[in-house]
Write a structure and sequence with these properties.
This protein is α/β, with parallel strands linked by helices and 233 residues long. It has helices at residues 9-20, 25-32, 36-43, 53-61, 69-76, 97-120, 168-176, 193-201, and strands at 125-129, 140-145, 149-157, 185-190, 211-217, 222-230. It has a 6-stranded mixed beta sheet with strand order 1-2-3-4-5-6, with helices on both faces.
């Protein structure tokens, strides 16, 4: 008989105790954002209804002892391991929405650091500007003065492992919402060779922009290459 949609309170409590590790319930609650009373009731098996995937995501993000999001989802009855091959056995970074959100923010900050390091090595004047826009704001906007005043807009496309590539034409469409000048530059920054190839292989048609794709190495903290795929006309 399938255990799908069946909340295994005993197994969930066991996994949650393991996930808590040597922390107090209060400490685990503070770190995960789930109330201490709710964690306590789950640990004692007092709840007949499984916690939501959102709550499990919070618990898994701060779990100790390699307890995964998948493990907790399975015990809660939200998935059936044998029939959910898309959910792999890797760590929670692969699948927990809260952890994924944290990683995106961490990596976007790393993207910005690499761009700033590149700018610091240049011999022209530049300054970071606050992105403007009502429907879309780029991740980074730089005012450059290297003989002529121009703007450099950067859109970050973070890649996590085993993740589907971005929607290229949606990304190109973002550039159309900015009033670009002939001297302005719009760069899509990626950290995945596959993402880079995807953009290079599907350049936009009839886009009025100096559009570039840049590949960066997060481990080495440097720009690997940059290629122009569209020119302002």
């Amino acid at each position: 008989m399938s255990n799908k949609n069946v909340f295994n309170k005993v197994e969930f409590a066991r996994l949650l105790e393991k996930a808590k590790g040597n922390r107090t319930i209060t400490k685990y609650a503070e770190e995960s954002g789930v109330s201490a009373s709710h964690i306590s009731r789950l640990l004692r098996g007092l709840l007949d209804t499984a916690p939501s995937p959102e709550t499990i995501s919070k618990l898994a993000t701060k779990a100790y002892n390699k307890v995964s999001y998948k493990d907790l989802l399975n015990a809660a009855g939200h998935i059936e391991v044998s029939t959910d091959p898309e959910i792999n056995d890797s760590d929670i970074q692969e699948f927990s929405p809260y952890r994924r959100r944290e990683l995106y923010l961490e990596l976007e900050n790393r993207f910005m650091q690499i761009i700033l390091s590149h700018l610091n090595a240049q011999d022209y004047d530049w300054s970071i500007q606050k992105p403007r826009g009502t429907t879309y704001r780029p991740d980074m906007m730089v005012s450059i003065n290297d003989g002529e005043s121009r703007k450099w807009y950067l859109e970050f496309k973070v890649s996590l492992s085993n993740q589907r590539g971005p929607a290229t034409y949606h990304t190109y469409g973002l550039a159309t919402s900015i009033d670009l000048e002939p001297t302005d530059k719009f760069t899509i920054v990626v950290n995945s060779e596959n993402y880079y190839k995807q953009f290079i292989g599907t350049p936009p048609k009839n886009l009025r922009a100096n559009l570039y794709v840049m590949l960066i190495d997060l481990e080495e903290g440097r720009i690997i290459k940059e290629e122009k795929i569209c020119e302002y006309y």
